[in-house]
Amino acid sequence: MGTKYTPNDFKSDQEVKWCPGCGDYAILAAVQRALPEVAEQRGYEKERFTFVSGIGCSSRFPYYVNAYGFHGIHGRAAAIATGVKVANPNLSVWQITGDGDALAIGGNHFIHAIRRNIDINIILFDNQIYGLTKGQYSPTSKLGKITKTSPFGTVEHPFVPGELVLGARGTFFARSLDVDVKLTAECLVASAKHDGAAVTTVLQNCVIFNDKVHWDITDKENRDDRTIVLRHGEPMVFGKNHDKGLILDKEELKLKVVEIGKGGITIDKILVHNAENPDPGIHMMLVTMKLPDMPIALGVIRAAKDSTYDDNVRDQVLAVREKATIKSMDELLHSGSTWVVE
Length: 342
Description:
- The protein is built from twelve helices and eleven strands.
- By secondary structure, it is an alpha/beta fold.
- The strands form two sheets. An eight-stranded mixed beta sheet has the order 2-1-3-4-6-5-11-7, with helices on both faces. A three-stranded antiparallel beta sheet has the order 8-9-10.
- The chain is globular, with a radius of gyration of 22 Å.
- The relative contact order is 0.11.
């Protein structure tokens, strides 16, 4: 049984330097709340946790967590995290990244870490803007967004991170809001349990350069009617009065919002969430739902099982070693044609 930790055990002695009101504070609080639970469930000591970041406001994160950390360069956090995990598979590796760091300069590293199913936990802060470099549009900025680098509005369609993850054969994807610390921590605990690349996107607010970008779903007045929190094995129900649900329209092969109690719709006709389904079809429909017709899906959307890159590397090394005629460096140096120089 590991040491009993509290959130304070994962707070570093460094002053947290984000803008007042930044959503990053809430994500940091969620991580520090989740890690003691992960440590208890997995029997981990604090030394098992390693945080790796790239460049951006979010990438200051390793300084603020009392654990091992590596502040990398722009877009390369996934490559560094991969190396850390393969070199020491016993570590619980967490990659901290933003929508610019992960999906622009780091885009190839991001999708290949997911494709390989490396057992790392990726937390993607998505504020749909470049914050550290002062307000340029990012790969997730909405079409038409006016920024310093798109003064007349962007002409590019944005990435949907969940769609990108599933398209790269991802086995785990979760989504949360910075204002919901409890749900974010819940997603991160599930991420740590998952064996493979686990991506949790947190819709985060940049108070300076993109304030209230997610206000249509983070506002308490509308949140319950515009979001749906998914939990494995439970019906897909949402709404302030829990009177709305999702069904699969089999004729049009798409998800549809219905009202429970009307038109013969009963709770047993509502779809039950199966996060573990190896077929990503329904999961893809869930991650691409958008307002105003559909709610935004939150919680663990996909958690399917598959072999991991680091396990496959280990098994391959063991198999080759088993068949090898040379078992050590000394045997290698004395193999083949050798001679002694007098």
